[in-house]
Write a structure and sequence with these properties.
single chain; four-stranded mixed sheet; about 10% helix
Length: about 210
């Protein structure tokens, strides 16, 4: 009858065991040791799926840093949303302020200048267009204002030079980063990114501050 270690429940071979059984038991022991071994990183993970209580040890411990990070919620790790950033289908993000959810890009494009209000309803899709209005004639626009053309073309336009718009709507550029001149205002063209809520986000918290 097999005996086991007290903590990891590793099998202890006996002299009476068959060689084949001993080799198999040792293989299972090695797998268990590997699963329980510490993972090392220099920062919080931004990709992958993690169960609650998974710990990552800091590979670069210095004064004022932390010994590591522990995941407090089962879910997917992802980088934080970034302003006016190019995203591709399948990219994942989390809000800059944790809301417990992770989002997948379902339409390649650029994030807006202002972080969206992330919905928390399951499976909801939304465009990255916070504080975006339709273009208006003879209107003074500030740098980083965002507008939409009167005829939807799947793009938003970011003001990169403040000024007054013309009395007629311009012919909008349809290539990413290309500029449109609109009397005194200048706009940069960006395809609209679209997101979908896809479940829980992992949430790693630091522990063991080194002082």
């Amino acid at each position: 009858m097999s005996t086991y270690t007290s903590k990891l429940r590793l099998k202890l071979p006996a002299f009476t065991d068959e060689v084949e059984n001993t080799i198999r038991d040792l293989g299972e022991n090695f797998e268990k040791l590997d699963r329980n071994a510490d993972d090392f990183a220099t920062d919080i993970p931004t990709q992958g799926d993690y169960a609650q209580n998974i710990m990552i040890r800091n590979a670069n411990c210095v004064y004022g840093s932390y010994y590591g990070w522990v995941n407090t919620r089962t879910g997917k790790a992802a980088p934080q949303w970034t302003s006016v950033h190019s995203y591709q289908n399948g990219d994942y993000i989390v809000p800059t302020v944790d809301n417990g959810h992770v989002y997948r890009c379902v339409q390649s494009g650029y994030s807006g200048y202002r972080e969206p209000v992330f919905p928390i309803s399951e499976g909801i899709e939304f465009e990255d267009l916070r504080a975006t209005n339709g273009w208006a004639a003879s209107t003074y626009y500030q740098k980083n204002d965002m507008v939409l053309p009167s005829v939807d073309n799947g793009r938003y336009y970011l003001c990169i030079q403040a000024g007054e718009s013309g009395d007629q709507e311009p012919v909008w550029a349809v290539t990413d980063g290309t500029t449109t001149y609109d009397k005194n205002a200048v706009w940069a063209s960006h395809r609209i990114a679209k997101w979908k809520e896809i479940g829980a986000a992992a949430w790693f918290r630091p522990f063991g501050k080194i002082e």
